[in-house]
Amino acid sequence: MAWLKLVLIACFWVTVCHGFYPKKLSNLGFPPIPAFPNNSPAGAWDCFKNLTDTHKGDRMKDMPNLKQYFQKFGYLTAPEGHNMTEDFDEMVENAVKMYQRNFGLNVTGNLDEATVSQLMMPRCGREDVINGTSLMWRNNGSGHAPNGLIHAVKHYTFFPGSPRWSVFKQDLTYAFDPDHEVTEITMAQMLTVFRSAFQRWADVIPLTFTETDDYANADLKVGFFSGDHGDGEPFDGPLGTLAHSFSPEDGRFHLDAAESWTVDLADDSASTAIDLESIATHEIGHLLGLGHTNVKGAIMYPSIAPRTRKVDLAEDDVEGVQSLYGSNPNYNGSVIRTTQEDTSGGSAFRPSPLFLGASPLILFLSYFVF
């Protein structure tokens, strides 16, 4: 009976730890999870819902909005004066396919629910594609560890030309635009958040970051802006483009003042709340020269849902920034990735149907065996 006892224990813990729903719940007799939850807050790209299940050859009134989106993030390069028609044409189909590849979706060229749901997700304003080349994929194959062994494929990317801060610039100063702040976050809170975000990067590379009141001469300039604010990258309101920053050695870092910014999700019940430190950590990566990655758990992944805290560098982030600057001599090689969703509106853990169905049986059998 000892072997049966071990099997039952193993089965129990597998079902407990399997905390995510299978992709095909209908195969297990459970209804599928809707792609668009009824209680999800409306965002800047909410109109994309109307494009669900469309494909090449269709005509939709919201298609010009999608074309503008794809142009903004580099997926669609329209000739000057190109008419934003309602046609789902071949150019749009190709853009959809590249987007699906970038985000690990089923590559069909059709706007299925999964693709539209991803398109509606709030995100960083930096491009995913430049001049037809995706910045979310590296074509360098597998990397090599110092001992010559092959390790996982590298996914981190850089801006074109791999810009970085000068080797003679080991300490970068940062300051906040006194004319572009938000009232819901105090300066003390702002300083705490940004000290933490900058330190996460300083822990892994031989650079330091120092606060300064001299905004005009700071290396990195942070501010909150609304709509068209003069940099060619206008913001679009809540739950659209959250922020954007520029590659070295530009130093500009702009956040959308229209967002519901928070420094503590547990103390903020808004369904639209955006964690400031999560966005700051991502944008600092751009300030240092990193592009987007297709690794969903990485800081440099472009999208983030409301009420999500994601602040710890993943291995992909660390390898990328160290490729540009080298390693901090005191870095011990540890990487911790933490992503927390809906910290006050409910637990991120969802018991799987397998657990719900199998656990009672396992416990029942355990009663007789143990």
Automatic annotation (TrEMBL):
Signal peptide: 1-19
Record-annotated active site: 283
Keyword Acyltransferase: no
Limits of the Peptidase metallopeptidase domain: 161-327
Binding site for Ca(2+) 2: 219
Binding-site positions, Zn(2+) 1: 229, 231, 244, 254
MF-aspect GO terms: metalloendopeptidase activity; zinc ion binding
Cofactor: Ca(2+); Zn(2+)
Residues noted as binding Ca(2+) 3 in the record, renumbered to the chain: 236-237, 256, 259
A GO CC term attached to the entry: extracellular matrix
CC cofactor note: Can bind about 5 Ca(2+) ions per subunit. Binds 2 Zn(2+) ions per subunit.
The name this protein goes by in its record: TSA: Wollemia nobilis Ref_Wollemi_Transcript_14056_1424 transcribed RNA sequence
Native organism: Wollemia nobilis
